[in-house]
Design goal:
Number of helices: 10
Shape: globular
Largest sheet: none
Order of helices and strands: HHHHHHHHHH
Helix content: over 70%
Oligomer: single chain
Distance between the termini: 32 Å
């Protein structure tokens, strides 16, 4: 059991789970727009997410954002380095439009950590922007990039999908924001700090209704997809309502992150 827990913790700590969630969202876009499985963009996102999130999580702990003293984190860094090489293999197969858009997202992620505005401030430290940066990068990565790489026209349905995905990510972030209340500095002005736990849960409920309603504005959305998104709305509702500052160890990092994966699996196998 101890070994299984260590493997599971590494699975979470090395960002494999969050990468699988991003991969799942990209696959959902492919399904909704009848795009054949695009291995290049799907795996570029999967391995790239592992690298990006490991950098975001652990580089502030490292000297010059590279050298880490702790052995466990060094192991994660080595794993991330291998994933970086695999990601580059797929990245160089992307078409130029996708590559340009992906580069902008990578720069945004880099500035999220590295102090570029002043010697002590970065995008992550700007008041209230953290949740929106995550929402933008995830939604653009999982909606726009698959469409660009397959030369699918950015239609009205694509814009609706992009906005719906952004709303989904913001709701998904709420349990994390509530969990982090005990560690976030007051000046960060996160949503729970501004609205309170009750207020941010009410906002979450409003956004879940919007998420569910947006699918009915999409012309080519199948009845199966509508039904599955209703199920996902209930999972989001559960995740928001039961979130609290003192959460179970894997509540946000596993259960909440898994909602994207469940959404994809339901589309594929239901």
């Amino acid at each position: 059991m101890k070994l299984l827990k260590q493997v599971f913790d590494f699975y979470l700590d090395s960002s494999i789970h969050v990468a699988l969630a991003v991969y799942a969202l990209a696959r959902i876009t492919m399904y909704n727009f009848n795009i054949p499985y695009d291995e290049v963009i799907a795996l570029a996102l999967f391995f790239g997410t592992i690298v990006e999130y490991s950098f975001i999580k652990y580089s502030p702990l490292a000297k010059h954002y590279v050298f880490v003293a702790e052995k466990y984190i060094r192991t994660i860094q080595i794993f991330s380095g291998v994933c970086f090489l695999v990601a580059m293999y797929y990245v160089f197969q992307l078409n130029y439009k996708t590559l340009i858009a992906a580069s902008v997202l990578v720069i945004l992620a880099f500035l999220y950590v590295v102090p570029a505005i002043s010697r002590e401030r970065n995008f992550r430290s700007l008041k209230g922007v953290k949740i929106y940066i995550v929402g933008i990068t995830w939604s653009v990565s999982t909606v726009v990039l698959p469409l660009l790489n397959n030369e699918v026209a950015i239609s009205t349905d694509a814009y609706l999908e992009l906005f719906q995905r952004f709303v989904f990510i913001i709701v998904l972030m709420i349990p994390f924001e509530i969990r982090d209340l005990k560690t976030d500095e007051d000046w960060l002005r996160t949503l729970p700090q501004v609205l309170g736990v009750k207020g941010v849960k009410i906002l979450g409920i409003i956004l879940i209704v919007a998420f569910c309603g947006l699918s009915y504005l999409m012309k080519d959305m199948s009845s199966k997809s509508h039904l599955i998104e209703i199920i996902i709305s209930f999972l989001l509702l559960f995740a928001v309502l039961f979130s609290k500052k003192e959460q179970a160890s894997y509540y946000s990092s596993f259960f909440v992150e898994s909602i994207s994966i469940v959404w994809w699996l339901l589309l594929i196998y239901a």
